[in-house]
Amino acid sequence: MCSAQSVSYANTNPLMLLSGCGAVMRDEKGRAYLDTRNNVAHVGHAHPAVARAVATQVHTLNTNTRYLHPNVCALARKLVETMPAGSELRETGVVFFVNSGSEANDLALRLCAAYTKRRGVVVVDGAYHGHTKSVAGISPYKYAYLGGKPDAVEAVPTPDVYRGSASAESARRDTAAAARKLREDGRGVSAFFVESGMSVAGVVMAPEGWMRAAFETVRGAGGLCVADEVQTAMGRTGRWWYAFEAHGVFPDLVTLGKPLGNGMPLAAVVVVGRCADEFAKGPEYFNTFGGNPVCCAAGLSVFDVLKAERLRNNATAVGNHLVRRLRAIGEDASLDRVTVGDVRGIGLFLGADLVTDRTTKTPATRYASLLCSALVQRHNILTSLDGPGDNVIVIKPPMCFSIRDADRFLDALHTELRRLNVLPPPILGKNNNVATRTPT
Amino acid sequence: MCSAQSVSYANTNPLMLLSGCGAVMRDEKGRAYLDTRNNVAHVGHAHPAVARAVATQVHTLNTNTRYLHPNVCALARKLVETMPAGSELRETGVVFFVNSGSEANDLALRLCAAYTKRRGVVVVDGAYHGHTKSVAGISPYKYAYLGGKPDAVEAVPTPDVYRGSASAESARRDTAAAARKLREDGRGVSAFFVESGMSVAGVVMAPEGWMRAAFETVRGAGGLCVADEVQTAMGRTGRWWYAFEAHGVFPDLVTLGKPLGNGMPLAAVVVVGRCADEFAKGPEYFNTFGGNPVCCAAGLSVFDVLKAERLRNNATAVGNHLVRRLRAIGEDASLDRVTVGDVRGIGLFLGADLVTDRTTKTPATRYASLLCSALVQRHNILTSLDGPGDNVIVIKPPMCFSIRDADRFLDALHTELRRLNVLPPPILGKNNNVATRTPT
């Protein structure tokens, strides 16, 4: 194969998937797989309304973005109108359309630097903000492998309340220390980048007050606050913007990507007017494909479908059901070798943290890998693992994922967990880690 | 308007364009505009075959790239198969699909650094490689405005043989000096980035031998050579890969973007196997949308249409016609105030350098702006300007641009040039620069 891809189940049986519908994908033999992980097919695989919108627009016009087009303006308006009333983003927000979450965070870096005239960035340990060279450099999840932490970056600890501790107080102390270091070394504080819900860190949700304290401290040091909602946007958590609505903070910039175009490459930065104005004084920013009429047609249709099918409500209802049943599985006393130690997240952005011991909370890395392998091989269920221990099942399916889908997944999960608790313990090398860990 | 865009004719009359066909776009009142500049709608606006391919695929499956899909492999194969027989890229080439030319060059930077373990980059003055923070940093066209040249970058002079001089010898001398500086300062030479045809620099084509000498010198210093074919790829010059086929060099990496998906966000890096292998030893590179089945369907269809409609031949024939007639206009002795001083490029990648004086070669910046304004207002012809003097009309239309289209454009151009030569000289402020200069 001459194309370089990072494929799931690569060591056992990579799948060739040729069609999709709702939360189901089918392979070349017509076998159907239940999809618990594809946060890109946001309103469902090959959703007919989105597909029609794309098909109509691509037959009419696609072009670079040198001209006005109603789709661009309409989609920008939709994004700004979902911001909370009274917030600066709602009142003055400007939208930059780009092609990926990585491009969105990369542009956000440039916007913050243009506004603050500084370059220091405070980030959160375990965070992932994308694959361009610059945003890999503000991603502790990646930069350890890429020659280490860049000099203008300081990281604060992951707000993990399951294995660690985090509070408003720790946020204030840690961000203040990071900001002080950046100032002392002459780099100054340009921005605080934070995922509203941390995905590759293993679905880590900051506790009450943590985000607000961090925002206040960074702003006190002159930095802007960037909420990376690439994983959580477009209603996945049941809310429009998790940062605002759950953490009660008001970011200066919000970035989003994956779900916006239901798989079409489309992403955006929404930024307060004062920052956009300062950026506009610099050289022209031009993004050839960003905001093209075809991808924007997809984005508009995603908004329509979310509303028509009440998918934010569905995310809340099915999410609550999943949390309840996952917790119940975690309480099954017969699972004494590997079990669900913690359930985190909200809506259809959930993590089930597999441990070998409820007290020590030891990540069940090898079991998790076996479990995902069994789920695809015996039950045709697609899952993914994340977290530093590769032991958190991340549940972020298409938003039409139903209670029935959830039950099918949960029944299979419980069955396989039971089986793993009676089988001889796994003896596995690293290569048997068959499910993929990483941002999807 | 709450979306931030960099729009053409923004100071006079920005256009809202709603449909397209071939080399024509139509506005909201149905007015047709001849498009001489849209290198994104590569095989023609809303080409029905490409539109059908996209529509079919988007109704079937779009997903992130965690799974195998025949479109990805087929498109990768097509790209590699167009490389010259015997070249290392043809024999061992690996394709990474991404979403934009910027992402392609950004990844190329990372690939080179992973292979060479060094970070110094040699670039060409006036070059533009994209908008992410890192590739803006290797783009002299941009970095002057962004806080200056980054410390790991050295630029060699633009190989401009119209206003300056350039030769194999100058290339050898200049790249050797740049490489020496990078080595002496401890950064080492990771890569040489060069556009096979320089677009924003004003359609500058390096002379015979220049590219080969530069490649040899940079390789001698241990660097890899990256041919940025974002502007010139997919047959625009009449050849598949201008770097190989016109300059006679064999790049280690080729990047391409704009034309590949006929407007769909799709771009690629083709890289020699030894470099891809080294990169694979590092952390996973995952690009959510890169190589998605819908955009790849567009890419495959672009290849089919190029072949079926013999568009590379068309580019050569119409390009030759344009060059001949532009040169003839330049020889019209009545044009003594503003004229075509130089015609550069090949196929449908051409530049007409407007000057106020054939001897001094003074850029006719203000006239050029007036000319483009007259062309859109009186003739419904879309044009664009580039070059450091904003005086080069860059001609890079859809590949179906016909002899008749060319004649319509050339007649209008000649008419308006004649008019500008008899009207009182323009008194214009900077803001009257109505046509847009920049990468499109």
Automatic annotation (TrEMBL), chains A, B:
Ion transport in keyword set = no
Q: What Pfam families does the database record attribute to this sequence?
A: Aminotran_3
Keyword flag Transferase: no
Its domain of life reads Eukaryota
GO cellular component terms, semicolon-separated: mitochondrion
Single GO MF descriptor: transaminase activity
UniProt record similarity statement: Belongs to the class-III pyridoxal-phosphate-dependent aminotransferase family.
The name under which this protein is listed is: Uncharacterized protein
